[in-house]
Amino acid sequence: MAKYNIREYKESGASYQESINPDILDELHTKILNILLIQRKFMDKDYSAKKLAQDLNTNSRYVSAVCNVKFHMNYATLINKYRIDEAMSILIDRRYLKLNMEDVASMVGFANRQSFYSAFYKQNGTTPRDFRMEYLHLHPELKKEKKKK
After folding, report:
1. What distance in Å separates the CA atoms of residue 66 and residue 74, rounded to the nearest whole number?
2. pLDDT in tens, 6-38
3. What is the pLDDT of residue 149?
4. Which of 7, 30, 74, 112 shows its CA 20 to 30 Å from the CA of 137?
């Protein structure tokens, strides 16, 4: 008879999150928004939670806690959300219609097309290509080139 390693379920919660002063969480939340959105560090494909923590002069556990408590997602999901939001803007911008998906992925900070497609689909339920095609179908005027006189 097989033996199963069954343990009593213990509700897991990062206790360190609860021990962080709420004022510190708020301050780090504001600083993270500044670094990621104003300085646009989310577009750096090598920008890790560790590098963010260094920029904040804190540790990666605090960064993780802020992401979980204030943003309600982990660091990777947060970064991907901002990258996908930026990609969606690029995909429907007339200036970038000739870019392929790999170029768009690289522009917004994804290391490769596969991770871009995966994150995009997870967030939007469609592929980047299908998103662009649907948008162009609804806005055919974007396909037309402006003629020079």
Report:
1. 9
2. 555 545 555 666 778 889 999 999 999 999 999
3. 46
4. 112
Domains of the chain by residue range: 19-72, 80-149
> What number of other Cβ atoms are within 10 A of residue 92's Cβ?
17
Task: Give yes or no for residue 105 having a pLDDT over 80.
Answer: yes
Inter-residue contact 63 to 56 (CB < 8 Å): yes
Q: Higher model confidence: residue 141 or residue 73?
A: 73
- Residue 53's Cβ-side half-sphere holds a number of Cα atoms within 13 Å equal to 14
Q: Which CATH superfamily is domain 80-149 in?
A: Homeodomain-like (1.10.10.60)
